[in-house]
Design goal:
By secondary structure, this protein is an alpha+beta fold. It has five helices and 16 strands. The strands form five sheets. A six-stranded mixed sheet has the order 13-14-10-12-11-16, covered by helices on one side. Strands 6-5-9-15 form a four-stranded antiparallel sheet. It has a two-stranded antiparallel sheet with strand order 1-2. Helix 1 crosses helix 2. The chain is globular, with a radius of gyration of 20 Å.
Length: 311
């Protein structure tokens, strides 16, 4: 990165490889509580970009934009207009219910910084890739606790891990940076979304039967009875999940952080444990726990759910 220009209040240019990315109003405060600016956000994504690209390349994305900072209303942008620069890849995919929509994908770090210039704080990505958009390569269980207490997330995540591993699957876990956690399973692109969602639903139902006082699959909050919600609805065409190492639009700039399973035992762990200031050093010291996760992908057609037995 090389700034070309001294006046931070106007505009700078960030050099990323052969691209020069314009950053307007770099001193605009996006996180008032933490005094973090647009330039701070750009520097963060510049630092973690090589790790994020592993999880973003080839996937349509949407962004959460906050033109006046996270303490003011923001909005979600799915469509990538034609005025995006040529080095931000744009892909057109069918919409649910008919028609088509053009999304951006993130193929290089310059694209990440271009999105930051639009005051994009969080990045969400599809569970499938653009070459086979109806065939996901990720299966996600979103563990949504009833409150801020992380204990139920830990307990359900460990039970879910055991269940998945008993079927020959390798699950990975990520703190969402909000309240809960995502348990993600890499899968081969052999089944469509409906089939993958059906598989996830059966796993979730079995887990709820085993832990009826702790977890539920009830989508209605009033029907959950204070239990953790196992959400499988992201396993659908056109749905997204927060990208690994994405910043969240929350006070303190927490980050969606992949962790090792052993880290679940850490005292005081919460979904917002890591923030924008900590992640670059963590990655430098520990690397990415999700690196190479695609090599663990399993063909779900060969998984025998009748091996689950009774809880």
């Amino acid at each position: 990165m090389s700034p070309d220009g001294a006046d931070l209040k106007a505009e700078i240019s960030l050099r990323v490889g052969r691209y020069a990315v314009r950053l307007s109003s770099p001193d605009k405060v996006l996180f008032p509580d933490a005094a973090l600016t647009k330039l701070d956000l750009a520097r963060y994504y510049l630092a973690v970009g090589p790790f994020m690209l592993r999880h973003l390349r080839g996937r349509p994305v949407l962004v959460q934009r906050f033109p006046d900072g996270i303490d003011q209303p923001g909005f979600i942008q799915q469509e990538a207009p034609d005025h995006f620069p040529a080095w931000v890849r744009r892909v057109t995919v069918p919409k649910v219910g008919g028609g088509a929509i053009t999304h951006a994908t993130v193929e290089n770090i310059a694209s990440l910084l271009y999105l930051v210039n639009l005051n994009s704080v969080a990045i969400h990505a599809w569970l499938s890739r653009v070459d086979r958009p109806r065939r996901p390569d990720r299966l996600i269980f979103d563990l949504d606790p009833p409150g801020d207490e992380f204990g139920p997330v830990r307990e359900v995540a460990l039970a879910l891990r055991g269940l998945l591993e008993s079927l020959g699957l390798r699950p990975f876990i990520m703190l969402t940076g909000s309240r809960g956690a995502h348990v993600t399973v890499p899968v081969r692109r052999e089944l469509d979304f409906d089939e993958v969602r059906g598989f996830a639903d059966r796993i979730a139902a079995h887990l709820v039967e085993a832990c009826p006082d702790l977890a539920t699959t009830e989508a209605r909050i009033e029907a959950r009875g204070g239990r953790l919600y196992i959400d499988t609805r992201r396993n659908a065409y056109g749905q997204t999940a927060v990208a690994p190492y994405s910043v969240r639009a929350k006070p303190g700039a927490p980050v969606a952080t992949p962790i090792d399973w052993s880290e679940l035992a850490e005292p005081g762990l919460t979904s917002r444990r890591y923030n924008i200031r900590e992640i670059p050093a963590r990655l430098a010291q520990r690397g990415d726990p999700w690196a190479g996760m695609g090599r663990a992908a399993v063909d779900l057609r060969r998984v025998r759910l009748n091996r689950l037995g009774r809880p």
